[in-house]
Design brief:
The chain contains 4 helices and 18 strands. By secondary structure, the chain is mainly beta. The chain folds into 2 domains: 98 residues, Immunoglobulin-like; 128 residues, Immunoglobulin-like.
């Protein structure tokens, strides 16, 4: 009985107290934020914005008057032009987005660097390497199970790793010509592949990877043939078969730069930590950046895509 009384008084004491903590938060010193992911099937682009403080609730503000110079293997390609794009939400016009671009596509195997100048900021610089796409082979797509609502399929694919230090991103994209339903998305899949589990970070329980966007490096298969087996689910046939719509599945394996790999992985860890509603959720996660004197990411991705032929 004494223990119960003590527990009641303990709860009553701490539930009736408001603890006020004054935080001495330093004033935010803004810097330039540069974001650009190079792709071999698209022209060179960049978004430049102002950085925000940790407690700044304002939307992203893009930089208008900036000079963005692009270098390929140390040689100046040119200065980017600027395109203004109006941004809207459900309430109407929000802001103007400024996109910088150079009418040239990057080449695999080349190094690219950006130098950004603005009168109000210290100059920023970043560099990345455009990797070579893999020769992706889909060896098998076979049925595992089926019910009235979905088909479970097993996919086996392979590619040759070139050696050295390589980083990859694997996704399955679903797309349809049906305008009435949202069928343009990345499909969830599950895999027990050791490389994917070792690199996945917050998206695995240690035995299986479950998600729609797998990151992995070549530490476990450097310079050899990589074989990946996974399982995914096709539920679209149940909804679209009677209407006559066709849903296509495309396997994507992207060779990505080390900078882009580190950025995506740290961003996922940050988002996972931010979703933990607890004072003891863990240490703060800093999102990776390779921008000198600024924030953001300059990365590269070279994608090999193969349309999957599903079994009848």
């Amino acid at each position: 009985m004494k223990n119960i009384t003590f527990l009641f008084l303990f709860i009553l004491l701490f539930s009736s107290c408001d603890v006020v903590i004054d935080l001495d938060i330093p004033e935010h010193d803004p810097v330039l934020v540069l974001n650009s992911v190079l792709r071999t099937d698209d022209t060179l682009k960049a978004y430049v914005s102002h950085s925000k403080g940790a407690f700044d609730s304002n939307s992203i503000s893009y930089v208008n008057h900036a000079s963005v110079k692009v270098f390929e293997d140390g040689v100046l390609l040119g200065e980017m032009d600027k395109l203004s794009i109006p941004s809207f939400n459900n309430s109407g016009f929000v802001d103007t987005v400024y996109r910088y671009y150079l009418n040239q596509m990057p080449t695999a195997g080349k190094f690219y660097s950006y130098e950004v100048e603005h009168d109000d900021y210290e100059n920023v610089r970043a560099e990345t390497h455009m990797p070579t796409a893999v020769d992706l082979i889909v060896e098998e797509v076979s049925p595992v199970g089926e019910d009235d609502y979905e088909k479970q399929l097993r996919l086996r694919c392979s590619f040759e790793d070139a050696g050295s230090e390589n980083y990859y991103r694997l996704r399955i994209h679903a797309e349809s010509d049906d305008d009435d339903f949202y069928t343009n998305y990345f499909v969830d899949f599950v895999s027990s592949d050791a490389s994917i589990i070792a690199s996945a970070g917050v998206q695995t329980d240690g035995m299986y990877y479950w998600g729609n966007d797998a990151l992995f490096d070549d530490e476990l298969f450097n310079g050899s043939t990589k074989v990946i087996t996974l399982e995914f689910w096709d539920w679209n046939y149940y909804y679209f078969e009677e209407e006559g719509y066709e849903v296509n599945y495309v396997l994507e394996v992207s060779s990505i730069s080390k900078e882009y790999f580190n950025y995506i992985k740290s961003l996922r860890a940050y988002e996972n930590n931010a979703n933990q509603f607890s004072l003891f959720a863990g240490e703060p996660v800093h999102v990776y950046t390779n921008i000198e004197n600024g924030l953001g990411i300059l990365g590269a991705s070279n994608t090999k895509s193969v349309e999957l032929i599903l079994p009848e």
